[in-house]
Specification:
The structure is a single chain. This protein folds into 2 domains: about 140 residues, 3-Layer(aba) Sandwich (Rossmann fold), CATH 3.40.50; about 60 residues, DNA polymerase, domain 1 (Orthogonal Bundle). It is built from 10 helices and 8 strands. The protein is globular.
């Protein structure tokens, strides 16, 4: 019998490396808004939190301008940035292995839901998930990670919290799992680090995708 019956993944930085497309689209938004364009390395902190939060908290974008920044970002991302991505090593095999064990697999992401589907379709992995949950296009400022995890659990039919594992690459994923009352796994191939996972109380920390399959036994 599997230790977990349900495994829920964050998307950007966990299942798919979408960093190039996101960061280049962020740079486009700053340029279009007449701001100094931050370095790609500095913009990595955008990957994980809701985009509204990142603009306002990391770069001091005002409430009166943030929606226009987001519009400019999406202007490039939906046309070009969405395809500047690739699956992380071992991820497709992992998803297949989990499903072969009878484990239901879901996504809980702060990325707009329709964009998750677009990327998943492009990479041919949509059918590998039993539920995909993201934010509504007009709700980037309000959906919490805990709420997204709980929604994914509901769609998966997960009523026993001890049977659920949330997997992600940032502290927001660990906090979201904690808020939902489920175990968490921080992955080291994304945009977070071991220090933040330990600080926020991750149940597990792994360096390779196959380690998640081992955890689910």
């Amino acid at each position: 019998m599997a230790k977990y019956d349900y495994v829920i993944f964050d998307f950007d930085g966990t299942v798919v490396d979408t960093g190039e497309g996101i960061i280049k689209s962020l740079q486009y938004s700053f340029k279009e808004m007449g701001r100094e364009v931050p370095d790609m390395s500095d913009l990595k902190k955008f990957i994980g939190p809701p985009i509204y939060y990142s603009y306002t908290h990391f770069y001091g974008v005002g409430e009166d301008e943030v929606e226009e920044y987001i519009r400019k970002y999406r202007e490039r991302y939906k046309v070009k940035g969405i395809y500047e991505c690739h699956l992380y090593e071992g991820m497709k095999t992992l998803l297949d292995e989990l499903r072969s064990k009878g484990i239901k697999v879901g996504v809980a992401s702060s990325k707009p839901q329709h964009l998750i589907y677009s990327v998943a379709d492009y990479l041919g992995i949509t059918e590998k998930f039993d539920a995909i949950v993201g934010v509504k296009i007009d709700d980037s400022n309000h959906s919490t990670k805990t709420g997204l995890v709980l929604e994914a659990m509901k769609l998966l039919g997960a009523t026993e919290k001890e049977k659920v594992l949330m997997v992600g690459d940032r502290l927001f994923d660990i906090d979201g799992a904690k808020g939902a009352g489920v175990d968490s796994c921080g992955v080291l191939w994304g945009y977070g680090n071991e220090e933040e996972f330990r600080e926020h109380g991750a149940t597990y920390i792994v360096a390779k995708a196959e380690e998640i399959s081992e955890l689910s036994k």
